[in-house]
Write a structure and sequence with these properties.
2 helices; about 45 residues; mainly alpha
Length: about 45
């Protein structure tokens, strides 16, 4: 199965949402999962 990357241009109004999602799904160091979840919620809120 071949894979290809499909890029979609997002409107400038979505830049904040895109940045928030990138931060939320960025790799985090391993450790206390409850603490990581609390940190994720605070970054999203």
């Amino acid at each position: 199965m071949d894979r290809r990357i499909i890029r979609v241009e997002l409107p400038p109004a979505h830049a904040g949402v895109t940045a928030a999602l990138r931060k939320a799904f960025a790799a985090v160091p391993h450790g206390n999962d409850d603490r990581q979840f609390d940190d994720l919620l605070s970054r999203l809120g």
